UniProtKB/TrEMBL annotation:
Bias (Low complexity) ranges: 15-27
Family: Belongs to the LEA type 1 family.
Listed InterPro entries: LEA_1
Protein name: Uncharacterized protein
BP GO annotations: embryo development ending in seed dormancy
One Pfam short name: LEA_1
Length: 76
């Protein structure tokens, strides 16, 4: 049963990370569209990439915590 719980938590983590990445990308695109300075646009793009990497890292850390729940022993 804990393996199923871990899979569900992994799916939830992936969905949450995907939502956060989409929201971050949309926010950065809106900010970038209103900017006129090319240097600020480049900085916004770098922030977007940094945020994406941070979200992916958080997702991997969260999933790693679920890994211990997947391993179970059969007693009998």
């Amino acid at each position: 049963m804990s393996a199923i719980k871990a899979k569900v938590e992994d799916a939830a983590s992936s969905a949450k990370a995907g939502t956060e990445k989409a929201m971050a990308a949309a926010g950065e695109k809106a900010e970038k569209a209103t900017m006129r300075d090319p240097m600020k646009k480049r900085a916004a793009e770098e922030r977007k990439e940094d945020r994406k990497l941070e979200i992916e890292s958080d997702e991997r850390v969260e999933k790693a915590g679920h890994g211990s729940e997947k391993k179970h022993t059969v007693e009998g």
